[in-house]
Design goal:
Order of helices and strands of chain A: EEEEEEEEEEE
Helix content of chain B: under 10%
Order of helices and strands of chain B: EEEEEEEEEEE
Structural class of chain B: mainly beta
Strand content of chain A: over 45%
Strand content of chain B: over 45%
Shape of chain A: globular
Oligomer: heterodimer
Distance between the termini of chain A: 36 Å
Distance between the termini of chain B: 41 Å
Largest sheet of chain B: 6 strands, mixed
Structural class of chain A: mainly beta
Chain lengths: ~110, ~110
């Protein structure tokens, strides 16, 4: 039981490049989330998926898109990366919204 | 907007002492609260949660206290160990925010040997 896994662990992009961050969970959870964490700050919700087939915006969705590929997988896409998107990105899952969320190890993204 | 915040950005304690980390929240409709621990370079780790119909909940060496009257949450760690050194976040959610978690900015706990 690996929990929540994320790939890649590290990524460096140039401004304007695109990339997709992958997330998968093996806990049969219904809900999945993407957060970003900037230095000295808490986590801010980018997008979430309350259940397979649905996605909703969080606090900071601009510049991002998501896809809930199936119950296990939830990807985050940066279409045109900007330096302001330099951050650590965490994926999380929970049995349903309103229950404890379990986090992956994170992806450190640097946009030059 | 609604927010969750912390009183002390850094807490330094002697190994073996008890630690208390505090958190204030502003949404009186919040009904679910979680404490997370985050070690350097890792994702947040679920510690303990509490719902608004409870005042206290205990886990292994940890206790969460909820005071809804003053909208205050605390995490107590008994016999603090070096492995407890980390940043601790509180998070809250409510039905009116579709149960999305709102995180505080974190408190760093340093354990002195």
């Amino acid at each position: 039981n690996a929990g929540v896994t994320q790939t890649p662990k590290f990524q460096v992009l140039k401004t304007g490049q695109s990339m997709t961050l992958q997330c998968a969970q093996d806990m049969n959870h219904n809900s999945m989330y993407w957060y970003r964490q900037d230095p000295g700050m808490g986590l801010r919700l980018i997008y979430y998926s309350a259940s397979e087939g649905t996605t909703d915006k969080g606090e900071v969705p601009n510049g991002y898109n998501v896809s809930r590929l199936n119950k296990r997988e939830f990807s985050l896409r940066l279409e045109s990366a900007a330096p302001s998107q330099t951050s650590v990105y965490f994926c999380a899952s929970s049995p349903q919204t309103g229950t404890g969320q379990f986090f992956g190890p994170g992806t450190r993204l640097t946009v030059l | 907007g609604e927010s969750v915040g912390l009183h002390l950005p850094t807490l330094s304690v002697q190994e073996g002492d008890n630690s208390i980390i505090n958190c204030a929240y502003s949404n009186s409709a919040s009904d679910y609260f979680i404490w997370y621990k985050q070690e350097s370079g890792k994702g947040p780790q679920f510690i303990i949660d509490i719902r608004s119909n409870m005042d206290k909940r205990q886990g292994q060496r940890v206790t969460v206290l909820l005071n809804k009257t003053v909208k205050h949450l605390s995490l107590q760690i008994a016999a603090t160990q070096p492995g407890d050194s980390a940043v601790y976040f509180c998070a809250e959610s409510s039905m009116d925010s579709s149960y999305k978690l709102i995180f505080g900015s974190g408190t760093r706990l340093l354990v002195r040997p």
